[in-house]
Amino acid sequence: MTMTLEMNAQGEQEGTSSTDAAELTILFGSQTGNAEYLAHQIHQKAAKSGQHVDLFSLEEWLHAGPPSTKRLLIVTSTHDNGHMPDNAAEFWDWLQGQEPGALDALPYAVLSIGDSMYDDFCKAGHDIDGQLEALGAVRVVEGIDCDIDFEFSAGKWSGPAVEQLLAAEPWSGTTASAGPSDVEAQTGGTGERVRTARIVHAQKLSKPGSAKSVVHYELAFDDDFEYQPGDSLAVFPTNPESLVDEWIAVFGNPEVVVHEEPRSLRSVLREDVELRLTHPGLVVGLSRLKPGSAAVQRIIALIQSGDREELDAWLWGRDVLDVLTDLDCLDLPIEDILDEMRPLQHRDYSIASSPALDEGRVHLTVNGVAYEGARGRYAGTATDFLAARAQDGAPFSVRRLPAHEFQLPASDVPVVMIGPGVGVAPFRAFLRQRQAGAGEADNWLFFGDQHRAFDWLYEEELSDLQDKGALTRLNVAFSRDQAEKHYVQDEILRHGDEINEWINRGAYIFVCGDKNRMAPDVDRALTTVLTRATGSETDAHAALAALKAEGRYVKDVY
Question: Cα 372 to the chain's mean position, in Å?
Answer without folding.
Answer: 25
